[in-house]
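User: Before I run my own analysis I want an independent prediction to cross-check against. Here's the chain; please return only the C-alpha cells and, at the end, one sentence I can use as a sanity check.
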Amino acid sequence: MATTRSPWLLRALVLLGVVTLQLCFALPRLSEPLIDGRVHTTYDNAALLHRATHSNDATISEPAKFFGQSRYRYKQGEVDGVFHNGSHGVLGPTCLRIFTKLFGHSVITMRSFALCLSLLSTVLLFVIVVTEIPRLSLTAIVMTLYVCFPLKYAFVDVWKYESVAEASMLAVLLALKFVDRKWGIAAFLTAVFLMFQADFMPYLFAVALVVYLFLHRNEHGRLAVWTALVV
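Assistant: C-alpha cells:
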C-alpha cells in the first residue's frame, strides 16, 4: 500500500512546492496599490473592481448586472444610469462579482481573486503535465519554470482577462483526457462552453482543438465530441 501511495504523495509534494513558490511571490504584494507601475499597468484590477462594486450595488436593479460588467453613469453627482461593458467575456467578471460580494470590495480581495485564478491554472497544468511526463523530476522543473516565467511572476496577483482564458483552456485540455468515460463528454462540452465565455483567445484555441479532434475522430468517443463541438 505504501508503494502505491508514494507516487501520489510525491506528486502532491511537488505541487505543494510549486504553489508555495507562487504564494511567496504574491502574498507580500496583496496590499499594494492597484496601480503599482510593474511590467504592465494593473488597470484591469482597478477597473474590474469598480465594475464589481457597481454590479453588486442595489441603487439600480438590472438583470445584466449579474455578469459583473456594469458601471454607473453620473449626472451632477447622482446616479443617472448604468452602462454594461460587452467587449469581453463574462465568465471572469461574473465570478469576481460573486467573490467580492462574499469577501468585500478591497485591494486585498481583488488581488486574492487574481491569485486564486493563477493557482487554479497552476493546478490544472500540473495535473496535465504530471500525467504526460513519466519523470516527476522533469515535471517539477517544468512547473517551476512556468511559475517563474516573467509574465506569470508579474501577473500572479493581477486580474487579467487572459488569466481567465488560460485557466479555461487548461480546463478544456484536462477534460479532453477523460472524454472516454461516461461523464467525460458532458464535462468536456461544459468546459468548452465556459471557455467561450472567458475572452477572445479561446476562439483561436478552439480552431486548433477542432482540427485535433477531427484528426483523431476514429478514437473511441472523440467523434461524438468533435461533432458536438462543431455544431
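Sanity check: Strands lie at 70-75, 78-84.
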